[in-house]
Specification:
By secondary structure, the protein is mainly beta. It is built from two helices and seven strands; from the N terminus they run ββαβββαββ.
Length: 111
């Protein structure tokens, strides 16, 4: 099978009928980026997942639509410390259900 290159650096998936876009997340406002990416690609994005800020947060954008920040699996790094920013190392697991979207979230602290 031929490997396809992804020049965007983003990961897209459809989970139980909901569009999910994973990005590193260096955008000013992840919540606003949901609408921006939806318009740019002419396709609704229900869930945008970013890791740039290394902190666990979520913001509702609309019905069955959220902007999700996930923790860093490495936790504190030299760059974060230079900004006086620290957080627990961690990972997130999301459960999706058809007709309901994200129904459950597991937040796992690694340190």
């Amino acid at each position: 099978m031929e490997k396809k290159e992804n020049p965007t650096g983003m990961a897209y998936g459809n989970f139980c009928g909901y569009s999910c876009l994973g990005i590193h997340g260096e955008v000013k406002n992840l919540k606003e980026a949901v609408n921006g990416f939806s318009r740019a690609y002419d396709h609704p994005i229900n869930y945008l997942i970013g890791g740039h800020v290394h902190h666990l947060t979520s913001e509702e954008v609309g019905i069955r639509s959220e902007a999700l920040h996930v923790r860093s699996i490495i936790g504190v790094d030299p760059y974060g410390m230079s900004l006086n920013k620290a957080s627990d190392a961690g990972a997130s697991l999301y459960i999706f259900e058809s007709g309901k979207g994200k129904i459950c979230e597991y937040s796992i602290k690694l340190n």
